[in-house]
Amino acid sequence: MACRLGCGACCIAPSISSPIPGMPKGKPANTRCIQLNEENLCKLFGKAERPKVCADFKPCPDICGGTNQFALETLLELEMLT
Ligand code: SF4
Ligand code: SF4
Questions:
Q1: What pTM was estimated for this model as a whole?
Q2: How many domains does the chain have?
Q3: Is 9 in the pocket of ligand 2 (CB under 6 A)?
């Protein structure tokens, strides 16, 4: 599937341990990435500074579902399992 642009759930729900510009220690779970803009798009998309873990995350129906809320809830559930 293609990413539902403007969703942003995978930039909010999961914790990220890699450094992110502006968040040198990464980000905690359930916290907006500082690089997520008001349209819920990544300000670093296509740039070398974008963490590898972000580029490696691929949209899939099981996680992203049909709504932004579904994706947020699913990613938060996965976060609590790890
Ligand atoms: S959770 Fe899925 S649909 Fe939402 S922004 Fe991330 S990859 Fe795209
Ligand atoms: S760097 Fe970009 S893709 Fe990665 S979590 Fe932040 S906004 Fe999302």
A1: 0.96
A2: 1
A3: no
